[in-house]
Amino acid sequence: MTNKEKNFASAVVYIHNAENRVEIFLTTIMEVMEENFEHSEIICVNDSSDDNSLNLIKKVSVLASTTSISVINMSYFHGLELSMNAGVDMSIGDFVFEFDNTYVSASKDGV
């Protein structure tokens, strides 16, 4: 049994035409949240993407067990700052982590 943080954690993720990388990014964030927090949420702010990003977010959300994954769909392109503000306003976490892009860099081991 592992000791998990009891405080609620929120992750706000900016999404705009990120279909190439959104699935691996959200899967990684979800695994980290579920490993370290008893209760958590991921809020994806879809800034009027016109690619397959939304469907990939839905695909990943099915895999979540203790993390709630939700989407805020912006009606037109608002840009990074306004979109992230909308996500932070909706978050309920004691901790709020903000991700303004969905790039995941490789570790030193190349994994």
From TrEMBL:
Domain Glycosyltransferase 2-like: from-to ranges: 10-100
Pfam families in alphabetical order: Glycos_transf_2 (PF00535)
InterPro entries membership: Glyco_trans_2-like, Nucleotide-diphossugar_trans
Domain of life: Bacteria
Listed Gene3D superfamilies: Spore Coat Polysaccharide Biosynthesis Protein SpsA, Chain A
SUPFAM superfamilies named among the record's database cross-references: Nucleotide-diphospho-sugar transferases
Name used for this protein in its record: Glycosyltransferase
Organism encoding this protein: Schaedlerella arabinosiphila
